[in-house]
């Protein structure tokens, strides 16, 4: 993995984390926090949620948050294994 790929992985991680944070705001403002009930990862006992606004908002936030967590873990592992050189990290952060 080269520095350009690591830089794009950093951008992707940032975007997914931003979307997860924004989705959390939408869930809070629309009071959709219990749209799927207390069950996880299922939504009201089903893998595909019922077609209500609250459950769709909550379930989409769960999916985006899961994707954000996955990209964050992948980014940490890639930086750990491929960016051991301090100069590479400085380039990516610039």
Kindly describe this structure.
The chain is an all-alpha fold. 69% of the residues lie in helices and 0% in strands. The two termini are 18 Å apart.
Q: Indicate the radius of gyration in whole angstroms.
A: 17 Å
The count of domains is: 1
Order of helices and strands: HHH
Q: Cα distance, first to last residue?
A: 18 Å
Structural class given helices, strands, pairing?
mainly alpha
Number of strands: 0
Mean pLDDT: 84
Shape: elongated
Unreliable segments (pLDDT under 50, ≥5 consecutive)?
none
Q: Number of helical segments?
A: 3
Biggest β-sheet, characterized? none
Question: Helical residue percent?
Answer: 55-70%
Strand content: under 5%
Subcellular location: Membrane
InterPro entries: COX15/CtaA_fam, COX15/CtaA_HemeA_synthase
GO biological process, one term: heme A biosynthetic process
GO cellular component, one term: membrane
Features of this protein?
69% helix; elongated; 0% strand; 3 helices
Task: Describe the protein's topology.
Blueprint: H1 3-29, H2 53-82, H3 86-93
Helix pairs in contact: 1-2, 1-3
């Amino acid at each position: 993995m080269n520095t350009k790929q690591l830089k794009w992985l950093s951008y992707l991680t940032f975007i997914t984390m931003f979307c997860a944070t924004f989705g959390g705001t939408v869930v809070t403002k629309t009071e959709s926090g219990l749209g799927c009930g207390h069950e996880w990862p299922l939504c009201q006992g089903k893998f595909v949620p019922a077609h209500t606004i609250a459950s769709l908002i909550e379930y989409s936030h769960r999916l985006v948050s899961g994707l954000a967590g996955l990209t964050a873990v992948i980014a940490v592992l890639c930086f750990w294994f491929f960016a051991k050189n301090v100069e590479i990290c400085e380039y990516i952060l610039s």
